[in-house]
Amino acid sequence: MPDPMRPRASLRTAVVWEVLKDALDRRVKATGREALDVLDTGGGSGNFAVPVARLGHRVTVVDPSPNALFALERRAAEAGVADRVRGVQGDVLGLFDVVERGGYDAVLCHGVLEYVEDPAEGVRNAVDALRSEGALSLLAAGLGGAVLARALAGHFTEARRALGDPAGRWGDGDPVPRRFTAEQLTELVAATGVEVGAVHGVRVFADLVPGVLVDTEPGALDALLKLEAAAAELPAFHSVATQLHVLGEKRA
Ligand SMILES: C[S@@+](CC[C@H](N)C(=O)[O-])C[C@H]1O[C@@H](n2cnc3c(N)ncnc32)[C@H](O)[C@@H]1O
């Protein structure tokens, strides 16, 4: 997906996109169907839904925000995939009021668990929406990345508060209601009976590097993307990543 018009945006999405694309390719091969049914819970304005539709898949986005769904519709039209993207207003905690149980080859839940009242129920619903052997793509804010970012910005008390806070929040002004460790996220997935696959650390360095180093040095963005990709797979870096990605597969 790296967007040539917004090169720095690729730093936020490249690792997840590569993992997701591989998982979808595997489902295409396993099912023998070129067009998969994909559900993007909390898919917002389509950062992932639209590129997934561009691969030829049918994507349903469930999101509570009418503004996000409006932006999604416009973006899908601009990308020429309006016929493969369906936006539905709804909540991951009331998922089956709006979509079919067991109807999807892949379910994305990216940047949503942080905001829901009951993350375990959110993951259970995402898994219940999957067909047998379907792929779960879960992305959520990492605790360690936030601690490191606050500390490097000189907010040492906030960093310590996040470290000791059960929800991983650095203070009352923290816009993110909840963060996770890799263990917490994988436990949430494993508790549903889904087989936990690869775990990746996302944005290990990108948020800590001064923008000027990436924007002005020739080749720096490309080198940083490669560094992010290499570090993402190493468990040692999971504890300092801004986000954590967990891939799961629903057992047959
Ligand atoms: C940080 S954005 C992530 C958007 C998109 N998934 C992405 O990765 O670019 C969080 C999205 O979750 C949606 N959201 C918040 N609470 C939700 C809930 N309970 N169920 C489903 N979506 C929710 C918001 O409207 C927003 O679009």
From TrEMBL:
Domain of life assignment: Bacteria
GO-annotated molecular function: methyltransferase activity
Biological process (GO), any one: methylation
Xref: InterPro entries: Methyltransf_12 (IPR013217), SAM-dependent_MTases_sf (IPR029063)
Domain Methyltransferase type: 39-135
This protein's UniProt keywords: Methyltransferase, S-adenosyl-L-methionine, Transferase
PANTHER family cross-referenced by the UniProt entry: METHYLTRANSFERASE, UBIQUINONE BIOSYNTHESIS O-METHYLTRANSFERASE, MITOCHONDRIAL
Protein name: Methyltransferase
